[in-house]
Hints:
Elements: E1 51-55, E2 62-65, H1 66-75, E3 79-84, E4 91-95, H2 97-114, E5 120-125, H3 131-146, E6 150-156, H4 165-178, E7 183-185, E8 190-192, E9 195-202, H5 205-214
Parallel strand pairs: 1-4, 5-6
Antiparallel strand pairs: 1-2, 3-4, 6-9, 7-9, 8-9
Amino acid sequence: xxxxxxxxxxxxxxxxxxxxxxxxxxxxxxxxxxxxxxxxxxxxxxxxxxxxxxxxxxxxxxxxxxxxxxxxxxxxxxxxxxxxxxxxxxxxxxxxxxxxxxxxxxxxxxxxxxxxxxxxxxxxxxxxxxxxxxxxxxxxxxxxxxxxxxxxxxxxxxxxxxxxxxxxxxxxxxxxxxxxxxxxxxxxxxxxxxxxxxxxxxxxxxxxxxxxxxx
Length: 215
């Protein structure tokens, strides 16, 4: 009579592999079955509508059954991608979906790199700023405006210098005249506390082109 094998005994509560393992709560091994990220577009068999409108260079534009459109895509080794889900019927293209996403992200990255973030650069004067210092700061302001940044110019009044506000206004208006070619004075000089401020914006290309044409 054969004796029972005592090398392995199942534990109460269900079958487990020798040496551990088993399943996590929920019924699945979460390490192996990670949730899949939802695609940006519906593709292939995830397109549930009965008909789609095909567009693109590699097909005859028209309305097809979704099953037929998917087969056409598969025959070309490509994907059926829904590009306009709100149309009736939805508009699809037969393309390489991975390449489509790659090109899209590449274009977005290039656009982001080319988009310059406008900053506000500050230029500080005193009522007694001399001509050399004025020209030096004006050149910096011109470069800031050419780069697409705004310029906040201000005259700082300390102590009794506050009585020379007219001198500060004249200096800022002279500064505005110096920057005429590259910047636009957004507001007349005004006092804020012990500072007299003037804000300059880059001169737009359209305005410059219009000016050139009128000449």
